[in-house]
């Protein structure tokens, strides 16, 4: 997501960083490149004009023009305006109401039904007890789709397959939730291929009858600039409370996310970044701005790791790393935990690696994935005893493992040597910490981290 925009903005900032100072001439050139980058990312022209105007106003101050670090100054200005453009701050989904009612609106094909299940899973993680309502009685198989998704996430779905009265279905679902203790009711409403009077009349009736705490519009990121028109129409008619942007992983431009929040004045609350049901992420404008500018998103990476990594298993691995019995079997467990967080390309995208292009990142990820596959093949060709005690792997065993895995012997030898070096380094760092020494002392301090860790 935002890959083309991110690359263009980073290149523009890199170019101006080589200048002696920020002048009106090179600032004008930078703004022209930023304008092109935004337009190519499918951001609406109105939004682009407003964005560029604000950057120009901030950059024309005397203090900025005399700056000796023009790249840093421009990054700060663009970052702040991007955060503002994306909505300013994260707005969590409301939990008001007994029960709390959330209605999802959107056109057909936007991913509304799948988002209903993803959202139900998300609110359950936050301690709620949700029930989903199949209120799309127009689209064939919509009810069955939601029921199937409900089984996958083990969340109940209220449906009346023979009933076409949407008001009655939602009312019965709310009564059921009160009787059985469900405190969040998520309603999957009907969609259309395009906005029409009948659709809006039905949604307006549901809105007025049940007064939902949240009215979330589901927008397909692949719609491009048309997303703005759809969002503004729904907002004018229904007064939406927030936006969910789906298929953001499939659109390298990302202009819809930048445009809809600014155009409607309503926050983007979630983004869908994959087909799996656990790929609905709360939207944080500041984190997204940092990722666009190549600053990474370490906070989201840590939060995701906390969600998917088994804490007990991680603690057990930590003990082994600190001791002397860290084995190849433990190494494989570490790799499995890393895979559960995301692909190597996704992880690299969330790490602060300034100046790296999309192509370079993809190459690094591809090479890394290939290397890990080779290592996995080597370890799978070993006996349990060899995995648990790599020191016993002598020359004959190495030849057998190389033949069994299809990996050349020199590559196997190199991996085993690197693994042994890694174990020695881990033991050395553990020993230094036990003796009171700080293994991080003397290392360069990342920007913004000074003072946060004692001993630097």
Descriptive terms for the model:
single chain, 456 residues, Rossmann fold, 434 Repressor (Amino-terminal Domain), 3 domains
Question: What would you say this structure looks like, in words?
Answer:
This protein is α/β, with parallel strands linked by helices. It has 3 domains: 3-85, Up-down Bundle (Four Helix Bundle (Hemerythrin (Met), subunit A)); 100-295, 3-Layer(aba) Sandwich (Rossmann fold); 303-434, 434 Repressor (Amino-terminal Domain) (Orthogonal Bundle), CATH 1.10.260.30. The protein is 57% helix and 8% strand. It is built from 20 helices and 8 strands. It has helices spanning 3-17, 24-40, 45-59, 62-65, 70-85, 112-125, 142-153, 166-180, 197-210, 226-238, 255-264, 285-292, 298-308, 311-322, 328-341, 344-350, 358-380, 384-388, 395-405, 409-434; strands at 100-105, 130-134, 157-158, 184-188, 214-220, 242-246, 268-272, 280-282. The chain has an 8-stranded mixed beta sheet with strand order 3-2-4-1-5-6-7-8, with helices on both faces. Helix 10 (226-238) links the parallel strand 5 (214-220) and strand 6 (242-246). Helix 1 packs antiparallel against helix 2, helix 1 runs antiparallel to helix 5 (70-85) and helix 10 runs parallel beside helix 11 (255-264). The protein starts with a helix and ends in a 22-residue tail after the last helix. 36% of the residues are buried. Residues 438-456 have low confidence and may be disordered.
Short synopsis of the structure:
The chain is 57% helix and 8% strand. The chain has helices spanning 3-17, 24-40, 45-59, 62-65, 70-85, 112-125, 142-153, 166-180, 197-210, 226-238, 255-264, 285-292, 298-308, 311-322, 328-341, 344-350, 358-380, 384-388, 395-405, 409-434, and strands spanning 100-105, 130-134, 157-158, 184-188, 214-220, 242-246, 268-272, 280-282. Strand 2 (130-134), helix 7 (142-153) and strand 3 form a beta-alpha-beta unit.
């Amino acid at each position: 997501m935002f890959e083309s925009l991110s690359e263009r903005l980073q290149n523009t900032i890199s170019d101006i960083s080589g200048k002696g100072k920020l002048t009106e001439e090179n600032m004008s050139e930078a703004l022209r490149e930023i304008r092109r980058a935004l337009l190519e990312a499918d951001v609406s022209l109105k939004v682009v004009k407003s964005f560029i105007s604000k950057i120009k106003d901030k950059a024309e101050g005397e203090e900025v023009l005399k700056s000796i670090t023009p790249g840093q100054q421009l990054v700060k200005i663009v970052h702040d305006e991007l955060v503002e453009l994306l909505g300013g701050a994260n707005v969590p989904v409301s939990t008001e109401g007994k029960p709390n009612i959330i209605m999802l609106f959107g056109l057909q094909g936007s991913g509304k039904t799948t988002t209903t299940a993803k959202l139900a899973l998300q609110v359950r993680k936050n301690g709620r007890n949700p029930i989903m309502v199949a209120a799309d009685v127009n689209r064939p198989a919509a009810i069955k789709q939601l029921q199937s998704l409900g089984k996958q996430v083990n969340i109940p779905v209220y449906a009346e397959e023979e009933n076409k009265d949407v008001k009655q279905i939602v009312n019965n679902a709310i009564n059921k939730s009160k009787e059985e203790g469900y405190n969040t009711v998520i309603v999957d409403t009907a969609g259309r291929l395009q906005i029409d009077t009948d659709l809006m009349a039905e949604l307006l009736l549901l809105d007025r009858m049940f007064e939902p705490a949240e009215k979330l519009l589901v927008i397909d990121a692949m719609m491009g600039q048309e997303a703005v028109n759809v969002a503004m129409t729904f907002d004018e008619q229904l007064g939406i409370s927030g936006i969910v942007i789906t298929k953001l992983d499939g659109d390298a431009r990302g202009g819809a996310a930048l445009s809809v929040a600014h155009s409607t004045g309503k926050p983007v609350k979630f983004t869908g970044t994959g087909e799996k049901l656990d790929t609905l992420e709360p939207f944080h404008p500041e984190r997204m701005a940092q990722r666009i500018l190549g600053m990474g998103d370490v906070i989201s990476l840590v939060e995701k790791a906390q969600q998917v990594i088994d804490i007990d298993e991680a603690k057990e691995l930590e003990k082994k790393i600190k001791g002397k019995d860290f084995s190849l079997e433990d190494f494989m467990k570490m790799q499995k935990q890393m895979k559960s967080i995301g692909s190597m390309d996704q992880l690299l995208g969330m790490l602060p690696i300034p100046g790296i292009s999309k192509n370079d990142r993809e190459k690094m990820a591809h090479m890394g994935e290939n290397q890990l596959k080779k290592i996995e093949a080597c370890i799978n060709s070993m006996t349990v005893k060899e995995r648990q005690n790599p020191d016993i792997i002598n020359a004959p065993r190495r030849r057998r493992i190389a033949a069994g895995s299809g990996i050349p012997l020199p590559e196997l030898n190199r991996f085993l040597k690197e693994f042994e070096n890694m174990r020695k380094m881990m033991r050395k760092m553990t020993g230094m910490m036990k003796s009171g020494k700080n293994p991080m002392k003397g290392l360069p301090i990342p920007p913004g981290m000074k003072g946060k860790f004692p001993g630097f």
